[in-house]
Amino acid sequence: MTEAAKAPVMTDVARLAGVSHQTVSRVINGSPSIKPETRERVLQAIERLGYRPNTAARALVRGRSGMIGIIGTATTLFGPASIHRTVEDAARAAGYFATSVNLPGVTRRALDDATDHLMRVGVEGIIMIAGHDEALEVVRRQRSGVPFVVVEGDLSKASFTVGVDQVLGARMATEHLLELGHHEIVHVRGPLNWAEARARVEGWRLAMSAARLRPAEPVHGDWSSESGYVAGLRIGEMPETTAVFAANDQMAIGVLRALHECGRRVPEDISVVGFDDVPEAAYLIPPLTTIQQDFKAVGRRAIEVIKQAIKGEDLQPSPLIIPKLVVRKSTAPPTRTST
């Protein structure tokens, strides 16, 4: 029998990161004196080794719980689920216990109950992954006494926020199509009680207006592939349309299926762009051009912000994280001039 592998310790992290164990300790404890590149190297070493700081001991010394609460409000969707996972990973890497409440539906009563539950177990702060307007309203009304960090949603409605620049992402998607020569670009939007959906509509409209084009009304969707399929059947009957920007990849997948059934070839007859860069996007037929969000960066920044908020430090507004355009085979110049 082989001897069980020992759990990694702080000196293992220091050796892999090429720093002292004091530097690793300062990173874990959120010291602001660490250079960003050093912090990133240490966090990568922690993740690679699976190192877990002795949070319980640290909490006893500090007289604190060492716990962060996470409320997820749409964990069946790729974006919120990815952010939830990366926030939990970043919390553990930073030496916190992470306790989560996942809500199957969004109601004020459910969100208030989730907040009350987390307060009863003694969390030092709460991160709410809240793209839905009702969730944001709960945050705005909170008087719990612990910091709330809002990830996703309308970031103007909370004091501490972290998010991706959704408007910029939508502009990048639309500008890519415009640069290819498309003029008739239909947008399949998400539900308008989600701030991300509104932001992506805004980015699409801004790009179209900057090109001196009048955008048509968006086609309604609800984030699901089914709604994208229904929208795609409608778009398939619009012969003047040469490009589609769907507000997420799930709807883009439905659009691709519907266009195929309508005899519209992608990208020869019509180009399609999604948003999120789901793992399946690169393996569709054709592979999907999309906007990639850096969910790991979102998780790390959310923990950095809540650590500072727990310490009572003055916080500057957190800059939005820049998305990335990933070009694949679902987009190409139009084979004819749209009217």
Structure, described:
By secondary structure, the chain is of the alpha/beta class. Among the domains are: 1-51, 434 Repressor (Amino-terminal Domain), CATH 1.10.260; 166-293, Response regulator (Rossmann fold, 3-Layer(aba) Sandwich). The protein contains 12 helices and 11 strands. It has helices at residues 10-17, 21-28, 36-49, 55-62, 78-93, 108-120, 133-141, 166-180, 195-210, 225-235, 249-261, 295-310, and strands at 67-72, 97-102, 125-129, 148-151, 160-162, 185-189, 219-220, 243-246, 271-273, 290-292, 324-326. Strands 2-1-3-4-5 form a 5-stranded parallel beta sheet, sandwiched between helices. A 4-stranded parallel beta sheet has the order 7-6-8-9, with helices on both faces. α11 (249-261) links the parallel β8 (243-246) and β9 (271-273). The chain is globular and about 65 Å long. 47% of the residues are buried.
Indicate the mean pLDDT: 85
Strand order of the largest sheet: 2-1-3-4-5
| N→C terminal distance | 74 Å
**Quick one: overall form?**
globular
Please give the radius of gyration in angstroms.
Answer: 22 Å
Instruction: Count up the helices.
Output: 12
- Class of the domain at 166-293 in CATH? Alpha Beta
Q: CATH topology of the domain at 166-293, anyone?
A: Rossmann fold
How would you spell out the order of helices and strands?
HHHHEHEHEHEEHEHEHEHEEHE
CATH architecture of the domain at 166-293: 3-Layer(aba) Sandwich
